[in-house]
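EI: anyone free to look at a 93-residue chain?
SC: sure, send it
EI:
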Amino acid sequence: MNGTTLEGQAQSVAGSVKQAVGTATGDNSIKARGASDQLVGDAKQVFGAATDAIGNPGPLIDKARTFARDRPWATAALVGTIALAVFNTLRGK
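SC: here you go
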Protein backbone atom coordinates (compact mmCIF):
# COMPACT_ATOMS: atom_id res chain seq x y z
CA MET A 1 0.00 0.00 0.00
CA ASN A 2 1.48 3.34 -0.98
CA GLY A 3 0.96 6.93 0.17
CA THR A 4 -1.62 7.68 -2.51
CA THR A 5 -3.81 4.81 -1.36
CA LEU A 6 -3.57 5.90 2.27
CA GLU A 7 -4.28 9.51 1.36
CA GLY A 8 -7.31 8.38 -0.63
CA GLN A 9 -8.63 6.33 2.27
CA ALA A 10 -8.24 9.28 4.64
CA GLN A 11 -9.98 11.64 2.23
CA SER A 12 -12.80 9.16 1.68
CA VAL A 13 -13.36 8.77 5.43
CA ALA A 14 -13.27 12.55 5.91
CA GLY A 15 -15.79 12.89 3.09
CA SER A 16 -18.08 10.36 4.77
CA VAL A 17 -17.92 12.36 7.99
CA LYS A 18 -18.65 15.63 6.15
CA GLN A 19 -21.56 14.02 4.36
CA ALA A 20 -22.99 12.70 7.63
CA VAL A 21 -22.62 16.12 9.27
CA GLY A 22 -24.32 17.75 6.28
CA THR A 23 -27.17 15.26 6.47
CA ALA A 24 -27.56 15.69 10.23
CA THR A 25 -27.56 19.50 10.06
CA GLY A 26 -29.53 19.75 6.84
CA ASP A 27 -26.71 21.69 5.16
CA ASN A 28 -26.67 20.55 1.55
CA SER A 29 -23.40 22.33 0.70
CA ILE A 30 -21.47 20.40 3.39
CA LYS A 31 -23.19 17.20 2.28
CA ALA A 32 -22.18 17.84 -1.35
CA ARG A 33 -18.57 18.65 -0.41
CA GLY A 34 -18.46 15.43 1.59
CA ALA A 35 -19.70 13.43 -1.38
CA SER A 36 -17.12 15.15 -3.57
CA ASP A 37 -14.33 14.36 -1.10
CA GLN A 38 -15.44 10.73 -1.02
CA LEU A 39 -15.33 10.53 -4.80
CA VAL A 40 -11.85 12.04 -4.98
CA GLY A 41 -10.67 9.77 -2.18
CA ASP A 42 -12.01 6.71 -3.96
CA ALA A 43 -10.26 7.78 -7.17
CA LYS A 44 -6.97 8.19 -5.29
CA GLN A 45 -7.38 4.71 -3.81
CA VAL A 46 -7.92 3.20 -7.27
CA PHE A 47 -4.90 5.07 -8.64
CA GLY A 48 -2.77 3.91 -5.71
CA ALA A 49 -3.87 0.30 -6.17
CA ALA A 50 -3.09 0.47 -9.89
CA THR A 51 0.33 1.92 -9.14
CA ASP A 52 1.01 -0.93 -6.73
CA ALA A 53 -0.17 -3.50 -9.27
CA ILE A 54 2.18 -2.34 -12.03
CA GLY A 55 5.01 -1.23 -9.76
CA ASN A 56 7.48 -3.74 -11.22
CA PRO A 57 6.43 -4.81 -14.72
CA GLY A 58 9.80 -6.43 -15.46
CA PRO A 59 8.82 -10.09 -14.89
CA LEU A 60 5.63 -9.68 -16.93
CA ILE A 61 7.52 -8.15 -19.84
CA ASP A 62 10.08 -10.96 -19.71
CA LYS A 63 7.28 -13.55 -19.85
CA ALA A 64 5.71 -11.79 -22.84
CA ARG A 65 9.05 -11.72 -24.69
CA THR A 66 9.66 -15.38 -23.99
CA PHE A 67 6.14 -16.28 -25.19
CA ALA A 68 6.61 -14.24 -28.37
CA ARG A 69 10.00 -15.86 -29.06
CA ASP A 70 8.78 -19.41 -28.38
CA ARG A 71 5.39 -19.13 -30.11
CA PRO A 72 5.56 -16.58 -32.95
CA TRP A 73 2.39 -17.81 -34.71
CA ALA A 74 0.33 -17.72 -31.53
CA THR A 75 1.66 -14.24 -30.82
CA ALA A 76 0.73 -13.05 -34.32
CA ALA A 77 -2.78 -14.50 -33.95
CA LEU A 78 -3.19 -12.86 -30.52
CA VAL A 79 -2.01 -9.46 -31.75
CA GLY A 80 -4.28 -9.73 -34.80
CA THR A 81 -7.28 -10.62 -32.66
CA ILE A 82 -6.64 -7.69 -30.32
CA ALA A 83 -6.15 -5.32 -33.26
CA LEU A 84 -9.43 -6.48 -34.81
CA ALA A 85 -11.26 -6.03 -31.51
CA VAL A 86 -9.87 -2.50 -31.10
CA PHE A 87 -10.72 -1.64 -34.72
CA ASN A 88 -14.31 -2.87 -34.35
CA THR A 89 -14.68 -1.04 -31.05
CA LEU A 90 -13.51 2.22 -32.61
CA ARG A 91 -15.87 1.71 -35.54
CA GLY A 92 -18.77 1.21 -33.15
CA LYS A 93 -19.59 -2.43 -33.84
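EI: The longest helix spans residues 28-53.
SC: 👍
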